[in-house]
Amino acid sequence: MYRIFLSATYIIKKGIKISFVIIILISCQMHNEDANSRSNLEKPKRYIGDSSIFPFIERNREFLVLDRLDSGYYATQLRFWYGYDDPRVSHIIVLKKNEDWIAEVHTIYFKDTMGVVRPGQQVIDTVSPKSGWKTFIDSLTQLEVFSLPDQTKLKNMPITYNQPTISVETIKDSAYRFYNYSKPIKYIVSFKEAQKIEMIMSLIENELRVKRLEFF
Predict the structure, then answer these.
(1) How far apart are CA 214 and CA 44, in angstroms?
(2) Would you give the distance in Å from CA 59 to the centre of its chain?
(3) Is the distance from CB of 192 to CB of 121 less than 8 angstroms?
(4) Nearby residues of 110 by Cβ (< 8 Å), 6 or more positions away
(5) 170: CB partners within 8 A, 6+ apart
(6) Residues of the chain under the 70 pLDDT cut
(7) Which pLDDT tens digit goes with each residue over 85-126?
């Protein structure tokens, strides 16, 4: 205890340079520990349905400081990216299980800087499903949230990108999936997969009380 007190006093007398060095060393150590822990993760099997949309998710993920799931993750996690017609706002629903399940609703407000739209303010709300976690996750699983194909893999399904689009990321049991559906409500009669993704969004809306700004 005495040594710690002397060290702190010495740092104060020497000014902030020594403190800055210590902060850098601590940050580097934390970064190295995080890098080491991630390097021990098993590389997941990857399914990326539409590679043209994936870079947009990557850029926003970096800004929001979210884990890169396609590099491996130590637990189950799901993300639902809501791309609305209005480019100024978006929702990201994050469901992740560490010891217990956690749900986060990220509301992202975008800003236009010199003609380039970038993420700006972010608001995060922590919520819980009304029916309880087991019922909620079981319902999502029954709707095949971990195994739905991308819309580009469905034969004869029209693909139109300039419409509200739901993008889904999941990782479970070392299997990573990324898939998308643009305006699936238009195709729920013809495609059971479109019906299921619409039911997934309705379930999220009812259980987590997340109101969609537009219907997909």
Answers:
(1) 33
(2) 12
(3) no
(4) 87, 88, 89, 90, 117, 118, 119, 120
(5) 69, 76, 77, 78, 79, 145, 146, 176, 177
(6) 1-42, 114-119
(7) 877 788 999 999 988 999 999 988 877 776 666 667 778 999
Q: How far apart are CA 160 and CA 209, in angstroms?
A: 28
pLDDT of 73: 81
Query: What are the distances in angstroms from CA 185 to CA 142, 182, 190?
Result: 19, 9, 10
State residue 189's pLDDT score: 93
**Angstrom distance (rounded) from CA 171 to CA 188:** 26
pTM score, two decimals? 0.77
Q: Are 182 and 160 in contact (CB under 8 A)?
A: yes
